[in-house]
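Human: Note C-alpha cell order:
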Amino acid sequence: MKFNLLFFVRLLLRHIGLLVAMPIILASLVFYMTKGEPKVYNSKARIYTGIATGSNIELENTKIDFRATNTAYDNLLNLIKARTTMEIVGLKLFAQHMALDSADIKIISRDKYQDLMEDVPEEVKKLVVRGDVEKTYENFIGLKESNHTNYIYKLINLDHPDYSIEKISGKVGIRRISNSDFVDIDFESEDPAICQNTLVILCEVFVQLNANIKVNQSDAVVKYFEGQLGKSTVDLRGAEDELLTFNRTNNIINYYEQTKHLAAEKEEFEIKYFEVQRKFQAAKAVLSILESKLKTHEKKRISSQSIMELRKELSTLNFQVSMKTLGMTKDSVQREKESKEVSEKMQRINELENKLASHIDTLYTTDYDTKSIASTSVLSDWLQNTIDYEGYNAQLKVMEQKRMEFKGLYQEFSPLGATMKRLERKIDIAEREYLSLLHSLGLAKLRQQNVELKSNIKLTEVPFFPINPKPSKRMLLVIVAGMVGFVLVAATILVLELLDGNLNTAKRAEDKIELNVSSIFPVISEKNKKLDYDYLRNKAVNAISRNVILNQYKKEKESEPVINMLFSTQENEGKTFICKHLIAKLCELDYKILHVTYDDEDLGLTGDYYHKIIYTVSDKLYKISNVQEFDSDNIISDFNTFDFIILEIPSIIKNPFPVKLASTMDYTFLVTRANRAWGEADKNALNLFKEATTGPEPSIILNGVKVLEMETVVGDLPKKRSLIRTWVKKIVQFRFFTKESVA
C-alpha cells in the first residue's frame, strides 16, 4: 500500500475510537483543573520616548539613524525588564503595602493584605514606618543587603506572586507601537489595585534609571573636558607669562617693529656715513693741495700754537655736536636738553671760526705767490676747508662709535628672535589646544543638554485601575488540550505504523523475505457489513488458484500431476485454511485434487475430484523421497489420475520436513501471516529449505492481510459508499476528473 493521503486517513479511521476518546479525556481534565482559576486583571501605561522624532538641540544633525534608533529602543526595553528594575519595583511595592495601617482597596485587597500580615515575620514589621513609604523602603534595603538568608532577600528572589523578580518580570509586557515614539507597558495581576500600583511604580523607577544612566554618561564627558581645559588654561598662561618675562628682561616692546625700525635706521645711518666720509676725504684732499701751495713761512704761521689750539678746540666742539646730533636717545626730555647744549656749542663754534678767520687775516697783507695766486685767497680757502675737515672728521669719529653701537644691537637682537619664535610657537600650540578643548567642551555640553532632553520620558497614559478582569482562557485551554490530545494520538499512531516491523503488505514481505509474493489473502471479519467479503474471498482464492493452474502448463510431463508444496516457518500461519479454499476452487473447476496433509480436520469437501491422505508427523519425513510414500495404506492406485497434488507440511522450524522430497517438488509456496515480524529464525529456516529444493524458488502466499491491501488486487473494494464519501475519497486521492466510463 502506498503511503498517500488516503492511507493516512484510513489509518486514522481504524483508530477512530482512540482519536476521539483521548482529546475528550484531556479536554475534560483541563476543564476540571481550571475550574477554580482566579480572575486576572490587566492595566496599561503608554510612554512617549522621543527617541526617533523628539526634539534635538543639534540643529545641523537632523538625519534619522534607524539603526541607532532601534538600538536605543532595545536599550530602553532591556532596562525595563532588567533585574535591577524589577527588584526595586518589588521592594517598593512591598514597602507600600507594609506602610499601610489597614487594607486600602486602592492599593491592596483585604484578603491579600491579611495574608501578607500573617506571612511577614516580626523582625520585618519592626522596620516599617507607618505612613512613610520611602523610609520603610530604605529600612528594607538595609535588611536585604545584610545577608542572603533574611526574609526580604528570599521574598524578592524566590517565587512570591506579587513581589518576586521572576513573577513581576513574567507579568510585564512591553511593545513598541509600530515605528512611533510610543511604547506600551502592560501588567496583569489577580488584584486590580496591585496591578495598577505595580505599573505606576515600574514607570517611575525605569524613567529615573534611564535619566540617571543618560545624564551620568554625559556628565562624565563634560567633567573630563572641563578638567583638560583647566590644564590647558594653566599651560597657556604659563607660556604667555614666560614670553612676558622674556620681553621685560630684554626690554622688548614689539620685537618685530623694533627690529624693523633698527634696520631702517641702520640703512639711513650707512648712507649718512658714506656721505660724511666722502666729504671728509674731499676736504682732506683739498686741504693737502692748499697747504702745498703755501710758502714755508706761511705754513709755519698757520701751524702756530694759537691756530692749532683753535683748531683743536674747534674739532672737539664739532665732535661733541656730532655726538649730540647723531645720538640714539629717544627720550623727549633728553632730546630737548641736548638741543640746548648743541645750540650753545654751535655758537661757540661760530665764535671759534670767526676767531680763526681773524687770525688768518692778520698774518699777511694781500700778496701773490710765484704762481700769481693771492695768498689771502689760499688762506681763505684753507681756512674754510680746515673747518669742513675738522667737522667731517668729528662726524666720522662719532659715526664710527655709532656703527659699533649698531653692531652691538644686531648681536643682541639676533638670538632674541629665535627665542621669541620658540616662545610664540609654544603659545600658539597651547592656544590651539585650549581652543580645541573649549570647542569639545561646548559640544559635550550641547550633547549633555540634548541627552537630558531626550531622556525626559513622558508618561502619556497613566496606568488605570482595572474594573473588569481579562476574558478567561479556560475554553481556549480546553480546545487546545483537545487538539493536543488528537495530535499526540495521531502522531503516535503514524509513528507506530511507520516503525511497525510486521510484514503487513506484499511490498514489505518481498523486501524482508526476499521472495516474490504470488498471492495475498485478506483477513475476514464479519463486523463490517458494508464490505462484500464473499467477493473478496473469491478474488483472493482466484488469484491463488490462477497461479497454481498456470504452473500446470509450465510442466514438461503433462501426464504427471503438478505437485505443489505449501509450507510455513511457524505454526498457525493458515496453511490448512488456504488449502481448503484453494482445493475447493480447483474442484469447482473440475480438477482432480489429491490433498496430502498432516491435519485431520475435515474440510467438508466430497466427490470424486477430491481425495485426502493424512500422514503422521515424525522423523520418518526426512527419508520420504516421493509422494507415493505418504500412502502407506495403498489407497491410491494411480497418482497420475490427479491433476494437482497439494502437499501440506508442518512448520519447518519446529518439525521435520521431507528434505529429499522437497528437491522433487514442482512448486513450493511459503504461507505466512501478514501480522507478524520476520525474524532471524524464519530467515535461517527458509535458507535451509531453499538449499534442499532444486526447482523454482518458493513464492509467498501472504495470509491475513488487511482488507484495504486487497485494493492492489481488485482495485476499489466492493463497498457501499455514500456520494459524500465517494467525493471525499476522490479528493484525498487527488482524482478530481476520474470517470467510471468512457462516455
Remarks:
- The longest strand covers residues 41-48.
- Confidence is low (pLDDT under 50) at residues 296-303, 364-375.
